[in-house]
Here is the input.
Amino acid sequence: MLKFISFGSGSSGNCYYLSTATDGLLIDIGVGIRTLKKHAKEYGINLASVHHILITHDHADHIKSVGAFSHDYHVPVYATEKVHKGIDHNYCVQRKLTPEQRRLVEVGTPLQIGDFLVTPFFVPHDASENVGYQIEADGITFVIITDAGSFTEDMKERIGQANYLVIEANHDVEMLQGGPYPQYLKDRIISPSGHLSNRECGQMLAENMTERLKHVWLCHLSEENNHPELARKTVDATLRSYGIIPGKDILLEVLKRKVPSEVYELV
Here is the structure.
């Protein structure tokens, strides 16, 4: 059995926790270090049990506290070479990683990290580089796809292999186009290297999920251009149009931007 918690999902800070009975990891640490410690204490989690950090990409809302956490708990940080360089040059990371804290991952190459078999895969986004992760442990396949502007064939295959999936549903296109953002920012968001809309998320799920998929969490919702219930309803309606019934065929939930999720037991 695995345990999963979202400690934050959105442009204010992203951080996800995954653990077995004997090992733990964090995916991204874009929330404040004091906030993370506070939440962990409330959940009864000893952060010393976190032995690995996986980083998807080098935007501040995913890496702000990675150096501080890695230093405080002596935890290695796994990322691609380009992402590590991006972390080095990001001014939001006040505590930089030491050479001893760095571990390299390569897109498409599985790596055994403690209890977890981790495979990074390329995800299109306007960072120095961006990856999703397929994580296997205890006979369970967990996949995370965040900050994705479009879908690759590899990403579609990962969706098909997942038992549990965290996937971006960033914006509602109508809200975005009618909202206050300047046009250049709107263009960036809807570009193939920007962010996924609710409709795109629902369609990719419907076309690529298999019967092995049990639970989907929608992540990285925009505060200005989306709403949790709108995202859920849009994805729900898209799935139903393909004959997939949320609540019966799969569980569908939305992760909150600033409030931790419950503790999910993945079996």
Notes: The longest helix spans residues 228-241. The mean pLDDT is 97. The CA atoms of residues 78 and 103 lie 5 Å apart.
